[in-house]
């Protein structure tokens, strides 16, 4: 039986911020249905690699292939078009206050030019109910999203990613703020996606999560891929994975990114007319740009992960 072709193939990716080399000739294959842990200390290059894969950063050199076709992503949308979707660590950065749970579940579709059908409340609810039911989620779809607890917000953001039918799903510390029971719910959803052939790139410092979700672990150190090992060897390789060198403290930005509050909606949080629909589309575009990491070329202003 022939070996399967990789879903994603990276060859000699390089990225430099000023004089600092964030990625140095990184090559990697990711296959359909496999779970890959992405590990390394702060400054190792994890975030830079994720940003390139998810379309928010362009490499200086190297190649990225999906299904045997060379790609050059210019935005998260271009990455999503070939099935690469990233879910970042903080769910509140990816939800739109002022909208219902249903509208947040369909937020990516709301931002599309042909989203008129979503202005019909019945159609919106039917679409959201179908997505939630397919994932086995019981969310209060008609409630304002602010009523959700942190665990349900995380599940909502993950469900929205699943609704895009990803082929590679990138997850950054998805269980970090969850209880054991809520983490188990989320991991169950991830298991179901892997069973359907979705590849997972997973960032976490919870070894139990890594051993549950992934079968391989790749380790970045100072921008270079230094290890590719079986996940069952993780406990004995903890030093290599996370490092113990002194690290520079994270840089705190002068001002937090603005949170796009969406106003002027009915009490139930649903869009009432086309003018408000266009306003939502504009806010969704602003939300996407605000949560996307900024490409900073001055190494003094950022520390790649």
User: Topology as H/E string?
Assistant: EEEHEEHEHHHHEHEHEEHH
Poorly predicted segments: 244-269, 290-303
Q: Based on Cα principal axes, name the global outline.
A: globular
CATH class: Alpha Beta
Instruction: Average the pLDDT over all residues and give the rounded result.
Output: 78
Helix-residue proportion = 25-40%
For the sheet with most strands, the description reads:
6 strands, mixed
The spatial strand order of the largest sheet comes to: 6-7-8-3-9-10
- From the helix content, strand content and strand pairing, which structural class follows? alpha/beta
Rg over alpha carbons: 20 Å
CATH homology superfamily name: P-loop containing nucleotide triphosphate hydrolases
CATH architecture: 3-Layer(aba) Sandwich
Tally the helices: what do you get?
Answer: 10
* Percentage of residues in strands: 15-25%
Number of strands: 10
Query: What fold name goes in the CATH topology slot?
Result: Rossmann fold
Terminus-to-terminus distance: 39 Å
Number of domains: 1
Description:
- The chain has helices at 46-53, 76-80, 101-105, 107-110, 121-134, 150-163, 180-195, 207-213, 238-242, 274-291; strands spanning 8-17, 20-30, 35-39, 61-66, 69-71, 84-87, 168-172, 199-203, 216-221, 224-230.
- The protein is built from ten helices and ten strands.
- A hairpin with a 2-residue loop joins strand 9 (216-221) and strand 10 (224-230).
- It is 31% helix and 20% strand.
- Helix 6 runs parallel beside helix 7 (180-195).
- The strands form two sheets. Strands 6-7-8-3-9-10 form a six-stranded mixed sheet, sandwiched between helices. It has a four-stranded antiparallel sheet with strand order 2-1-4-5, covered by helices on one side.
- It has a single domain (8-301), classed as Rossmann fold, CATH 3.40.50.300.
- It is α/β, with parallel strands linked by helices and 305 residues long.
- It comes from Pseudomonas pergaminensis.
- Keywords: ATP-binding, Nucleotide-binding, Repeat, Transport.
């Amino acid at each position: 039986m022939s070996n399967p072709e990789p879903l994603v193939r990276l060859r000699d990716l390089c990225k430099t911020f000023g004089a600092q080399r964030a990625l140095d000739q990184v090559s990697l294959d990711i296959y359909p249905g496999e779970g890959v842990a992405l590990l390394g200390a702060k400054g190792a290059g994890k975030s830079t690699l994720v940003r390139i894969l998810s379309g928010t950063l362009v490499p200086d050199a190297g190649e990225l292939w999906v299904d045997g076709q060379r790609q050059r992503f210019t935005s998260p949308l271009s990455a999503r078009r070939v099935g690469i979707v990233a879910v970042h660590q903080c769910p509140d950065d990816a939800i739109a206050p002022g909208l219902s749970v249903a509208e947040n579940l369909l937020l990516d579709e709301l931002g599309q030019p042909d989203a008129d059908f979503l202005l019909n409340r019945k159609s919106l609810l039917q679409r959201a109910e179908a997505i939630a039911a397919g994932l086995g989620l019981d969310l209060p779809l008609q409630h304002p999203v602010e009523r959700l607890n942190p665990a349900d917000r995380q599940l909502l953001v993950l469900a929205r990613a699943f609704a895009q039918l990803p082929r590679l799903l990138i997850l950054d510390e998805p269980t970090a703020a969850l209880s054991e029971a809520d983490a188990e719910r989320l991991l169950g959803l991830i298991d179901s996606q892997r069973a359907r052939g979705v590849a997972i790139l997973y960032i976490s410092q919870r070894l139990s999560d890594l051993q549950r979700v992934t079968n391989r672990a790749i380790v970045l150190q100072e921008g270079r891929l230094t290890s590719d090992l079986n996940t069952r060897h993780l406990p004995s390789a903890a030093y290599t994975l996370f490092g113990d060198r002194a690290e520079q403290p994270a840089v705190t930005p002068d001002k937090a990114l603005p949170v796009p509050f969406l106003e002027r909606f009915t009490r139930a949080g649903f869009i009432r007319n086309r003018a408000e629909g266009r306003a939502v589309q504009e806010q969704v575009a602003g939300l996407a740009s605000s949560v996307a990491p900024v490409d900073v070329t001055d190494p003094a202003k950022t520390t790649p992960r």
